From TrEMBL:
Pfam families in UniProt: Phosphodiest
GO MF annotations in UniProt: hydrolase activity
Annotated organism of origin: Phototrophicus methaneseepsis
Family annotation (PANTHER family): BIS(5'-ADENOSYL)-TRIPHOSPHATASE, ECTONUCLEOTIDE PYROPHOSPHATASE/PHOSPHODIESTERASE
Name listed for the protein in its UniProt record: Alkaline phosphatase family protein
Length: 274
């Protein structure tokens, strides 16, 4: 199977449980740089229930939990399966890689479609995202995939243990930011990089429809993306798969209910003018 020779990668970094106001409060030079270099919104929306596995099923399948039916952190096969992002890319001969430290995410795509993956059970260790980023950087440098999913789970862990917006949580967000900086350095120049959370949190939990749980930060950078631009259109988790497909020049799958975040893209006219 030939890979298109000049497909720059799309790298999707998931910051589990990171609230937008945490980024505003903590010292986050890498994420601040993404704002300057790209399009962003601090008002993107999670799904109901704002729980990690339901959120990820919505991210990878572009349908709400009421459609995929995963309503808690427990997977069961879908009664009516959806063609997800990884399967969709695979049909176009685009290779997906996944680097993660929370095992339940193994079900965001069906067996037989990933090109590479790395899992280690470290989401509950304070330094447990470092090994994920080590591996992701190696895989990116070695061109092991066209689409790289980098899952960082420790900010959520610290939120549950110490409270969202606690000093320890903010410190963990700063640590995450430095790891994101490493991925940015490892990424080839023409890469597109998407960074967003699955949900926020309040006190020591999340899962409700409260704005603290539902509102998430969202950043996109790359050659097709506007710079220093705040996206005004509503952005939801359902839009991730269509947006990533669009970055590869592909239409959405007909099963998907989200839309590509086209407002973030440089249109033809802008490009010629720019
Ligand atoms: Zn989560």
């Amino acid at each position: 199977m030939m890979n298109p020779p000049e497909t720059p990668p799309v790298i999707f970094i998931m910051t589990d449980g990171v609230r937008p106001d945490a980024i505003a409060t903590a010292n986050t030079p890498a994420l601040d740089q993404l704002k300057q270099r790209g399009a962003y919104t601090m008002q993107a929306q999670s799904v109901v229930p704002s729980i990690t596995l339901p959120c990820h099923m919505s991210i990878f399948n572009s349908v709400p939990p009421s459609r995929h039916g995963i309503l808690e952190n427990h997977y069961h096969p879908l009664a009516r399966p959806v063609t997800g992002l990884v399967e969709h890319l695979h049909r176009k001969e685009l290779r997906s890689g996944m680097y993660y430290n929370w095992d339940f995410l193994r079900d965001v795509c069906r067996p037989g479609y990933l090109h590479t993956s790395f899992y280690v059970n470290t989401a509950y260790n304070i330094n447990g995202d470092e090994i994920i980023v080590d591996h992701a950087c190696e895989a990116i440098a070695a061109n092991m995939a066209d689409f790289h999913f980098v899952y960082l789970g420790t900010a959520d862990t610290v939120g549950h243990a110490m409270g969202w917006m606690s000093d320890m949580y903010l410190l963990q967000v700063e640590m995450l930011d430095s790891l994101i900086g490493r991925v940015l350095e490892a990424a080839p120049t023409q890469s597109h990089i998407l960074v967003h959370s699955d949900h926020g949190g309040h006190e020591r939990d999340h899962g409700t429809e409260m704005p603290e749980d539902m509102t998430i930060p969202w950043f996109l950078v790359g050659p097709s993306v506007r710079q220093n631009y705040e996206v005004q259109q509503p952005v939801s988790l359902l839009d991730t798969a269509p947006t990533i497909a669009a970055l590869f020049g592909l239409p959405s799958h007909r099963d998907w209910e989200g839309q590509p975040v086209t407002e973030a893209f440089i249109n033809q006219g802008d490009e010629q003018a720019g």
